[in-house]
Amino acid sequence: MATRLVLDHRVDDQPRCSPDPRAADRSPLGDAALRRAGAHRLHPRSRSTTSRDSWVCALLTLGEGYHNFHHTFPADYRNGLRWFHFDPGKWVIWIGSRVGLTHNLKRTEAPIRWRKRLERLTERYQLSLELTAADAGHDWRQMIETARERVDTELTRWSQNLREYHRAYRAGEVTRSMRRSVRDARRAWRANWKEFLALGQALPVAA
């Protein structure tokens, strides 16, 4: 049976090759393209699978390149999250909803998506600290955990306010205070998120 090499992604983000005897049973275009995008692939939300986001693969496979998002949020009808992400299937489904051909499209709400990004960045920060001195790493871990908790708290508040707003919207009972609470929660999350990102930029570098 013919075999080919597939990329086995390690924690250090350095791809390693290993033979895969099941490769002959897979689609040569979709699977090979999704696994061989090299530097263009990303794990922006989760490393629980080897799936990554790649605009190159999206072009080659008609929108199937944003697999990290798809595997992280499988109920979402989109592969590419942004409107400009090349995902013809997403556009066809959305157009269908405008003319009554599709209904009840599932979208993952923003706070849930950003919580996955928070978890992913926390993993990266902790991994970076493993390469630093133990005494410095302890203080930084406490700072990261404190900052992470603040972001998580604001994400929870944003999510709760957003769900209340959506329930009120469906019932036709939206008020100005509801809109204001959603905006305020989002602003508070964004401020804490920026601080979390700044903390990551300031992490000590291993000698």
- Overall shape: it is flat
H and E string: EEHHHHHHH
Distance between the termini: 48 Å
Number of strands: 2
Which secondary-structure class do the elements indicate? Answer: mainly alpha
- Order of strands, main sheet, comes to 1-2
Q: For the residues shown, what is the average pLDDT?
A: 75
Helix tally? 7
Q: Your description of this structure?
A:
The chain has 207 residues and is mainly alpha-helical. The chain folds into two domains: 4-98, no CATH class; 110-201. The protein has helices at 30-35, 55-60, 67-72, 88-98, 110-129, 134-171, 176-201, and strands at residues 4-9, 15-20. It has a two-stranded antiparallel ribbon with strand order 1-2. A hairpin with a 5-residue loop joins strand 1 (4-9) and strand 2 (15-20). Helix 5 (110-129) runs antiparallel to helix 6 (134-171). The protein is flat, with a radius of gyration of 21 Å.
Name the descriptors.
207 residues; mainly alpha; 2 domains; two-stranded antiparallel sheet; 7 helices; 2 strands; flat
Summarize the structure.
The chain has 207 residues and is mainly α. Helix content is 55%, strand content 6%.
Task: Present the secondary structure layout.
Blueprint: E1 4-9, E2 15-20, H1 30-35, H2 55-60, H3 67-72, H4 88-98, H5 110-129, H6 134-171, H7 176-201
Antiparallel strand pairs: 1-2
